[in-house]
Amino acid sequence: MRPPLICCLMALLSTVRPVYAHGAIQQEETSVPPASKSTAEPPKLLAEPDRPLDGRISAEKLTEYDPPPLPERVIIPLPPTFRIASDPSQVPISGEHFEKARAAIRRGLAFLREAQDENGGWMTDIMAAPTDVPDRPSPIAAAVTALALKAIMQAEPQTRNDPPVRRAIRFLKSAQRTDGGFEGAALTNYVTSVVVSALAAFEGNEFEDDVTDGTTWLQANQWDQGEGLSARQDWFGGAGYGDQGRPDLSNTQMMLDALYDAGLSPDEPAFQRALAFVSRAQNLRATNKAAWSGNDGGFIYTPANGGESMASESAGEGRRGEKLPAEQPRSLRSYGSMTYAGFKSMLYAGLAPDDIRVRAAFDWIRRHWTFDENPGLGGQGLYYYYHTISRALYVAQQDRITDKAGEEHNWREELIDALAARQREDGSWCNESDRWLEGHPVLATVYSTLSLEEGLKPTTR
After folding, report:
1. pTM of whole model > 0.85?
2. For residue range 447-461, what is the model confidence (pLDDT) as tens digits?
3. Is 137 left (phi over 0), alpha (psi -120 to 50) or beta?
4. What count of Cα atoms within 13 Å lies in the side-chain half-sphere of residue 109?
5. Which residue has the higher pLDDT, 93 or 5?
6. How far, in Å, CA of 55 to CA of 43, rounded?
7. Which CATH number fits domain 55-455: 1.50.10.20, 3.90.1680.10, 3.40.50.10330, 3.40.190.10?
8. CA dist., res. 124 & res. 39, Å (int)
9. How big is the CA angle at 364 (ends 73 and 314), to the nearest 5 degrees?
10. What is the pLDDT, as a whole number, of residue 25?
11. Nearest to 105 by CA among 455, 461, 460
12. How many CB atoms are closer than 10 A to CB 399?
């Protein structure tokens, strides 16, 4: 859990709003701080492994190039908050939007309560397969149950001892393993990450041991020197669905969400090693030497095994860019949900607002500002996108975003309007683009409710 000193520093710094410089992406190599200046002890964090490569990793699929720079200094991000505002004056939105969001949350939670299974879980009969092992469908009920519990606790903490909540907790505890993880078969990293975040939202010490055990498991299963990986290899620092699959940015940002919600400091090795992986997922040549890298500042799905992008797949170019014309240099497309995931992850890891990677990501956000779609994927993953954008902009302490045309946007109000317009009569949400299970009303409703709650978290303490 968070040391007292970090608590004090976070409370002090939470009143300071960072400014993310607008402007062209700098491409000069000299603008990047050298890794040797990092305060995070590069020899220890990026040291060569002392053991052979883990047998679960295919050496022939790895690519090698210099790791991105570590931060010159670690900036403590805004501390996690697990309660929505009780008064509209605590949030930079109109009273009308505050009430609209509260009403949408109440209706969403009412739908979720009706959808809860008798055993306490949600979506207990649904299976999903990782993107890298489609032949290994695994249960996701523990993850969805954890997300639903977090949504309930953030809006209605007074219900923590109500029978439906305690049934859900028992359901989660039944998935707990002796090694600290939460069972999800091929999806165990994903499941454990969201369970840790949910239990942290209960606050107090009721689940302190469970949260600690879960974060310990997550750090132990991060791909790094413990698996014989060098910091020069593209798996380094990432997390995948379970302990078998290659890492990706989606799972890595969920792992970092959990560590952040659990109160770990950004100078922990897990954050700093993850920063190497996250930076390698960014289309930014100044800090990413991958052959596929472009220079728009956005992010792809994974740099591992030579790189993959769902946006490239959606554009008909193949997930790995393998369908591009032979005469065209291979490149991978950035897209919305992964760019917000990367932006948020860099802040969790303590990168400063003026770091070239943070500024480049923020410029991409300004150029692709929208709540109408998941940029690069259209309707696919739209509610995941809403959840990621809301968490990212809250931790970035940005109340208003100025887009590429110079128009200013209150992101909270626009998010509330977008979700209120999509809410169905029964209080649920559902994605017509049924990919990644968003066609299931429970999952889409969980994402939507959590997104609205991020928009209502207080900005004053």
Report:
1. yes
2. 999 999 999 999 965
3. beta
4. 22
5. 93
6. 25
7. 1.50.10.20
8. 46
9. 125
10. 40
11. 455
12. 16
User: Of all helices (H) and strands (E), which one includes residue 409?
Assistant: strand 408-410
Residue ranges of the domains in the chain? 55-455
Confidence of residue 301 (pLDDT cuts 50, 70, 90): very high
Q: Write down the pLDDT at residue 38.
A: 38
Convert the pLDDT of each residue in 22-74 to its tens digit: 544 433 333 334 333 334 444 488 889 999 999 888 898 899 998 888 888 89
Closest among 191, 152, 186 to 168, alpha carbons compared: 152
**Is there a contact between 283 and 299 (Cβ–Cβ < 8 Å)?**
yes
Indicate the helix (H) or strand (E) that contains 402. Answer: strand 400-402
Please give the radius of gyration of the chain, using alpha carbons only, rounded to the nearest integer.
Answer: 21
* Angstrom distance (rounded) from CA 68 to CA 279: 6
- Residues 192, 184: contact at Cβ < 8 Å? yes
Count of alpha carbons within 13 Å of 242, Cβ hemisphere only?
A: 20
d(CA 283, CA 269): 24
Contact by Cβ (8 Å): 185, 242 = yes
How many H-runs (helices) and E-runs (strands) does the chain carry? 15, 4
Average pLDDT over residues 219-239: 93
Residue 242 has pLDDT above 60, yes or no: yes
- What is the signed CA dihedral for 155, 211, 445, 311, rounded to 10 degrees? 130
Residue 140 near residue 460, CB atoms below 8 Å: no
pLDDT tens digit string along 311-320?
Answer: 999 999 999 9
Which residues of 118-171 form beta strands (DSSP E)? 127-128, 138-139
244 neighbors 133 (Cβ within 8 angstroms): yes
